[in-house]
Amino acid sequence: MKLNLSFDSYNFMKSIITKFLFKNISPMIEQKESNNEFNFSILSYAKRKRNSNKAIYKYLLINN
């Protein structure tokens, strides 16, 4: 089954996903001051979740 999305619905879905992920990761962001510490927190989050691809995807969504 193909999923055809218009540009508007794609952006809408991306914003919902980003807000949901940001809500889950924001406590980590508040505790970290520098970018290096933030990157380290993402790596530790990936290790805890045992799925680094998901954590990297979340990191890219937040930083872009």
Describe the structure.
The protein is mainly alpha-helical. It has a domain at about 25-50. It is built from three helices and no strands. The mean pLDDT is about 60.
Topology:
Layout: H1 7-31, H2 35-49, H3 52-63
Descriptors:
single chain; 64 residues; mainly alpha; 3 helices; 81% helix; elongated
How widely separated are the two ends?
Answer: 29 Å
Instruction: Estimate the global geometry from the Cα principal axes.
Output: elongated
Kindly provide the radius of gyration, computed on alpha-carbon positions and rounded to a whole number of angstroms: 14 Å
Low-confidence region ranges: none
Tally of alpha and pi helices: 3
Tally of extended strands?
A: 0
Give a summary of the structure in a few sentences.
The chain is an all-alpha fold.
